[in-house]
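User: I'm putting together notes for a lab meeting next week and I want to include a structural view of one of the chains we've been expressing. I don't have a solved structure, so I'd like a prediction I can at least talk through. The sequence is below, exactly as it appears in our construct file.
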Amino acid sequence: MVASPAPAENPFWREKTLEEMTASEWEALCDGCARCCLNKLEDADTGAIEWTNVACLMLDEAACRCRDYENRQKTVSDCVPLTPQTVRSLTWLPPSCAYRLIAEGRELYWWHYLVSGDRETVHQAGISVRGRTVSENDVPVEDLEEFIVDWPGEEAGDGAGD
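Assistant: Thanks for the context. Below is the predicted structure for the 162-residue chain, given as structure tokens.
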């Protein structure tokens, strides 16, 4: 593991609750993994989440960002905006998600750019979806089960933060 620079003594994510963060602090928490932009399947009986590598049509896979973030809900009606309330209730946020980590009172992983100082470390650590997705434009919804994959950090404690 590459040594990461020491974070500021009192960074905002350690000092504030999700509700107390400014809009720019809130947006800064996004690590750029883009996993929230993937299609997921939920077992109706158990609630278990299966991850696919099928990305929202709005995802810019190279940048791991939405192509039109400000207007995404106009284009994608089922896009779920992340808020302090939704972060605490969504079962499909990956355990490595910074929003989820902060909501649970946990630390950000070494590869998060707020810790590493480099937006590329999420990609270098293999956490992001960069280079590993197909567009939902190319996959009929009835075929999603054929695109189920395992992602690093999918399960808490699997070493994604090591």
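A couple of points you could mention at the meeting. The CA atoms of residues 23 and 29 lie 10 Å apart. DSSP finds seven helices and five strands in the chain.

User: Perfect, that's what I needed.
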